[in-house]
Amino acid sequence: MFKSHILGYPCVIIFNSEEAMFVLNKDQLFKPTFSASKERMLGKQAIFFHQRAYHANLRMLVLRTIMPEAIKDIISEIESIAQSCLKSWEGKYSILNACTSHTRRARKELAQILAQIISTRRNMKQDRNDLLGLFMSEKAGPTDEQIIDNIIGVIFAARDTAATVLTWIVKYLGENPHILEAVTESIIRGKEENGEQIGLNWSDIKNVLMTSRVIQETLRIASILSFTSREAIEDVEIQGYLIPEGWKVLPLFRNIHHRPDNFKEPEKFDPSRFEVPPKPNTFMHLAMGSMDVRWSIIGAKKKNQYDPFALPQNGLPVTLYPKK
Ligand code: HEM
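# protoporphyrin IX containing FE complex -> structure
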């Protein structure tokens, strides 16, 4: 733990898992803190800026839509979208990248589109089984303004994070062909043993242990959200140190994930380490998939860029080709 100033604010930086969990779990002592520009971009009713009942209710609704069960009936649809994307990229130089620009105008347009969708669904009495449908079906649930801010918030939380993790997975599997083969084998073997046809189904999603270890190890080693931030609501003492009211506190996930006392040989990509559960509170995590293409990475493999999360340089340009 040490203190510093970041962007003019006094901050306490934490890279010990117990202290990080203390800060994240004590919302009577620490509140979320974000820049004014983030609040303007997402909307002040978005989940990130709130606590207690309003926050808990939104969190429960969002969690319901990202549980694996939520995609049970649309697995083959998701697989076919993924496959058609991969097919359209075959043989081409492609960049997996995320771009954040013209945010204010984009936000306004998104809000208008969402308002239109809400009004159409209401007029047509459409009951849809998605996050918007869930928000709209809540009795005494969020207002339209709150729904819009939170749909934009979830798009923000889900899009770049998921795209960035996928990019890192492609990089690590590309660099570790034996792990890639093991992942592919584990899915195909399971299907052959069950006499099933090629194509993902619900039992694959529940049984892809190897795949989920690869995802966990990627989330750990790439730690795409390196840290989060809170603000002390009052003076708080941790481990004999005083954190004065108003100071920011930054738990550093990346450092916690890269401490050798938490994860042996932390710089090594080794999904097998997740065959046993990590020490409590040392892994701040998330998520699943399959594909039958291979790729080669173009250009320098060692450099990173920040856009806004750490990504392999230029979004990891790759050439895709069908698996032989
Ligand atoms: C796959 C990569 C992802 C990573 C590494 C990730 C990581 C995180 C972390 C560390 C936080 C906590 C921030 C804090 O408490 O200060 C968070 C919050 C959040 N994430 Fe994700 N996330 C990912 C994907 C997603 C997806 C796909 C969704 C879509 C639903 C999502 C929705 C949210 C929401 C709504 C919050 C705010 C939760 C709250 O305030 O209680 N995230 N995420």
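# post-check
The radius of gyration is 22 Å.
Confidence is low (pLDDT under 50) at residues 287-291.
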